[in-house]
Amino acid sequence: MNTFTRILRLLTLGLCLAAGAAQAQGYPNRPVRIVVPFAAGGPADNYARFIAQRLGEEFKQSFVVENRPGAGSIIGTDVVAKSPADGYTLLMMSNTHTVNESLIPNKPYGLLKDFVGIAPVNYSALLLVTHPSVPVKSVGELIALAKSKPGKLNYASSGNGTPYHMAGELFKFMAGIDMTHVPYKGSSGARTDIVSGQVDVMFDAETTMAVMAREGKVRALASTGLTRSANLPDMPTVAESGVPRFEATIWLGLMAPKGTPTDVVNRLNAEVRKIVNHPEVKATWARQGAVPMSMTIAEFDRHLQTDIANWANIVKVSGAKPD
Q1: What is the pLDDT of residues 6-47, one digit of tens each?
Q2: Between 297-318 and 262-276, two packed helices, what is the crossing angle to 10 degrees?
Q3: Is 220 helix (H, G, I), strand (E, B) or coil?
Q4: Is 86 helix (H, G, I), strand (E, B) or coil?
């Protein structure tokens, strides 16, 4: 390579870097859409709006949440996958997405192939609850009832592949029981029917179900973390209630279409981390039962890969299938 060619390549690289920096510096100059592929009222929707408001305040630009539920998150996720990779369409995802990589392999997109991770947001334990009419007051009693009536009890979820579905399948497998899965199009419908007694059992995020449990609308039997929730210290875990090592959580994060400018992704990562690490946010979320997650882009990518592999193993051993 002669000197002229080297200089030309260096100039070209410099121009590309300058263009990328300029793009990030001017971003965003119009409203940004955050697609939530779940129904309104659930954790993904609630925390997407929380993050959107604070990003809007920081960037002095609108971040608009758009709910596009359906097919266990696949419909809304595919909308983002097919959107321009310019930073103006983002995805609020959850571990539903890492589950679906193995549970529903024939999707129109691949999570790590068609998306780039921006940042995780938070995680929370789930609560195992029943309608008050179900004659049980502990996990042990629920297991005994389910064993006496194989397949007669049912459990609600917000759809195939969601943390609520997979918690139910994992519980069935580890407790050696059979319950019938009743998938809904969103967590709000499932929540309404567990409260009204249309379904017997549900795993739901602590951040949305704790209030209903306190009000007596449902009976909370246990939380699903490996340790007791700081928000509900008197609530036993499933693991200490007869199903050793049981753990199930819901976690949320932001992603963008593959090819989104690196500087834009880096800037969004920095701002999301600033939000979730703010002392006031930590305190607010702690009262709700949510724990902030703060990672670099590389750390988040490793987290996604690990979670996909872990859920693939659970799907395999539990025999979970989309209904």
Answers
A1: 554 545 544 444 444 445 568 999 999 999 999 999 999 999
A2: 80
A3: strand
A4: coil
Q: Which residues pair with 183 in a beta bridge?
A: 157
Q: Examine the domain organization and report whether 280 and 235 are in the same domain.
A: no
Write out the two tokens for 304: 């996604």
Tokens of 70: 């359906």
Same-domain check for residues 236 and 159 = yes
Q: For residue 198, what are the domain limits? A: 125-241
Which backbone phi and psi does 25 adopt, to 5 degrees?
Answer: -65, -35
Domain-located, residue 258: yes
Contact call for residues 285 and 294 (beta carbons, < 8 A): no
User: What tokens appear for 221 in the block?
Assistant: 């039997």
Domain shared by 130 and 215, yes or no: yes
| CB-based contacts of 269, cutoff 8 Å, min separation 6 | 118, 119, 296, 297, 300
Is pLDDT above 60 for 317?
yes
Cα–Cα dist 262/16, whole Å: 12
The domain that contains 56 carries what CATH number?
3.40.190.150
- How far is residue 110's CA from residue 64's CA, in Å, rounded to a whole number? 25
User: Stretch 178-200: mean pLDDT, rounded?
Assistant: 94
6 in a structural domain: no
DSSP code at position 186: S
User: By the 8 A CB rule, do 103 and 95 touch?
Assistant: no
Contact 64, 34 (CB under 8 A): yes
Query: pLDDT band at residue 197, thresholds of 50, 70 and 90?
Result: very high
- Residues 87, 186: one domain? no
Residue 227 CA to its chain's centroid (Å):
20
Q: Could you count the other beta carbons within 10 Å of the beta carbon of residue 135?
A: 9
Q: Is the CB of residue 93 less than 8 Å from the CB of residue 252? A: yes
Does pLDDT of 180 surpass 60? Answer: yes
Residues 270-302: tens digit of each pLDDT: 999 999 999 999 999 999 999 999 999 999 999
Beta strands in 37-79 (DSSP E): 63-67
Q: What is the DSSP string of 52-82?
A: HHHHHHHHTS-EEEEE---GGGHHHHHHHHT
